[in-house]
Design goal:
Layout (H helix, E strand, L loop, with lengths): L4 E6 L6 H8 L3 E5 L9 H13 L10 E6 L5 H8 L6 E4 L5 H17 L8 E2 L2 E2 L2 H5 L1 H5 L8 E2 L1 H8 L11 H14 L15 H14 L4 E3 L5 H8 L3 H17 L4 E2 L5 E2 L1 H12 L6
Parallel strand pairs: 1-2, 1-8, 2-3, 3-4, 4-5, 6-7
Antiparallel strand pairs: 9-10
Helix pairs in contact: 2-3, 9-10, 11-12
Length: about 290
């Protein structure tokens, strides 16, 4: 249930829903009921998203995933009641701070799934880390029920920590590495890289996306369709990279000893093979 591009669309803008799904292709649309929606529009947004997800959904490997970002307050239960169904891939609980919150969310999801005749556990969870407390508890959160990956909300996090990110954003390096480590420790998919609010600076967005990929993120959240092809380009290996990765795995298998040499005479072991498998796993689906 992983995707490379994750496009946020305000839940209060139903006229954008179909366009967003077309833009992401086989990626994911995040229908936002939280910060992108004014308080006066929350109820209407919830209804718009619920109605959209209740309609027949595209199927197959090229169909977009549908996620919903939930409110982190008293609205959460109403959000779940409205959106849980066969058309929903998963939920993103905003401002997640503890494992206990996820245990409660699991109970609510289990009840909603049973009520709708859905298999227990079919609705995935991808917590959004947006505070110092959430960051400190990232490993426990990553081990929570149904959790498949983590998202990082850097605007809220910077405000909570009092950070003032500069042009190279090195002030956020610790937080970014923390969520990468947390996902690895929990054995779940590498985290989704955070949004960039400056959607007009596409060159800067591409450069920062490459840096986030090198740091261990997989895919990125977007706020504008123009960012999507750049994310896909950065996280999709070139044909040459795919050939090199496949060659590494062949050489290691042929050696039969756990150690081999690559085409340049450098040592190959299981650690190198793991990186090669990651490269091949990022290839676009051909089905």
């Amino acid at each position: 249930m992983s995707a490379t591009s994750h496009l946020y669309v305000p839940g209060s803008k139903p006229e954008r829903f179909h366009k967003a799904e077309q833009a992401v292709g086989s990626g994911a649309v995040i229908f936002d009921l939280e910060d992108a929606v004014a308080p006066r529009d929350k109820a209407a947004a919830r209804q718009y998203v619920a109605e959209h997800l209740s309609r027949p959904r595209p199927s197959g490997p090229a169909a977009p995933l549908a996620w919903v970002r939930l409110n982190a307050d008293e609205r959460l239960e109403a959000d779940l009641e409205a959106v849980v169904g066969a058309g929903l891939s998963g939920v993103i609980p905003a401002k997640t701070c503890s494992r206990e919150e996820l245990d409660r969310l699991d109970e609510l999801l289990t009840a909603a799934e049973a009520e709708r005749g859905l298999a227990r556990g079919r609705t995935a969870v991808a917590p959004l880390i947006e505070s110092g407390l959430g960051l400190a508890n990232a490993v426990d959160i990553a081990h929570g029920p149904r959790v498949t990956t983590l998202h990082l909300g850097e605007i809220d996090l910077a405000a909570d920590l009092g950070l003032e990110p500069g042009p190279d954003e090195t002030e956020l390096l610790f937080a970014r590495s923390q969520v990468v480590v947390a996902c690895s420790a929990a054995g779940i998919t590498s985290p989704v890289a955070p949004v960039s609010a400056n959607f007009r600076d596409l060159a800067g967005f591409t450069a920062s996306t490459r840096a986030l990929r090198r740091l261990g993120f997989f895919g990125r959240a977007c706020i504008h369709p123009d960012q999507i092809p750049l994310v896909e380009q950065v996280f999709s290996p070139s044909a040459e990279q795919a050939r090199e990765a496949a060659d590494i795995l062949r050489r290691l298998e042929d050696a039969g000893s756990g150690v081999a040499l690559d085409a340049e005479g450098r040592m190959i072991d299981e650690a190198v093979a793991r990186q090669a498998r990651r490269v091949l796993a990022r290839r676009p689906s051909t089905t």
